[in-house]
Amino acid sequence: MATPSGRAGDGDYGAAVSAPPIPLARARRIALAAQGFDRPRARGRVDVRHFRRVLRTVGLVQLDSVNVVVRAHYLPFFSRLGPYDRSALDRWLWGSGEVFEYWGHEASLIPAERHRWFRWRMEQGLGWQRVTRLEADDPEYIESVYDEIRLRGALEVRDLPEPGERDATSMWGWSKGKAALESLFARGRVTTAARRNFVRRYDLTERVIPSRHLLDDPPTRREAQRELLRLAARSLGVATVDDLADYHRIPIRDARSVIGELLGDGELEQVAVEGWGRPAYLHAEARAPRRVEGAALISPFDSLIWHRPRLERLWGFRYRLEIYVPADRRVHGYYVLPFLLDGDLVARVDLKADREAGLLRVRAAFAEEGHDPVRVARELCSELERAASWLGLDGVAVEDRGDLAPRLAGLSR
Is the pTM of this model over 0.90? Predict the structure, then answer.
């Protein structure tokens, strides 16, 4: 194992790695195993045990308001488990006390036992201008909102007696009431008790999260960052410093400092990966299965592909979510999902759930170079049909855009 001797300026450790580089194909299998893609999908009814396993494997699941196919947090469970009852997942996420919502990567669902590791972020706040301005100018209003929740129970913004008008100058158009709730949420004083139509209902943290997870003596910022980086390493398998830092949005300077400790304690091993051209870190418990089999559609918000530079290093897959790109400048489409097949990313599809027509629409489909388009189309068609059924849609309709679309359309008829 490399020792943390350090190199000036880059924050990576060990002057050289004497072992041969990890082959890229092996690094891919390590990464997929760390994210739970080496396990076969559930057979029979999917229950809380399966949900719990997925969340603990990936560490946190990102939330997002986009609902073009389905809300973002449902797809990582489908990708790893196959079809399941979304209402059962909802009951577990917001009714069991095992999960809480906080800013982990972005807005994320996180195992409740990890609450302690985010207390440093809660104590420092998130620094959003709309919130910090309210904290400085009118802290009494924030306290009045807190008291409303304390006395009345879980509330949405609209339930506040004086929520204020939406702010047209703010990025999200937050009202004063929403900014106050987000201040309390960021500071950990309230959390999400439930979501109705994806709208947060806020309640006191101690009424949502079991008391055993709410410590009076939380870890220091450095202790917490060390643990979060260790957890990130376990969920990534093999990763660079910036990969590890990105997972829980740890400042890169802090990550570089803490990684040396993880190396020294044997939690990580510095390695080289074929073609990466920079040091990588292998988690001590990382698995490298001989093969990874199966198919999965990958959400744009899946933790497997959060850090786009890592995605490109592992698979040569250049990916950009083009929601905010003008329509005439989009390359692949509005809401594009990569398609994983037997350990490789072999295609991408622009999808839309047309609930009125009862169809999962494939707006475009593109094959990646170097893969058999006949097999890719066949396996992708099967997965799309499975997804449509899971979403309660009657079938798949393929539009004529992308090199894979004609083959896919022929199979979908």
Answer: yes
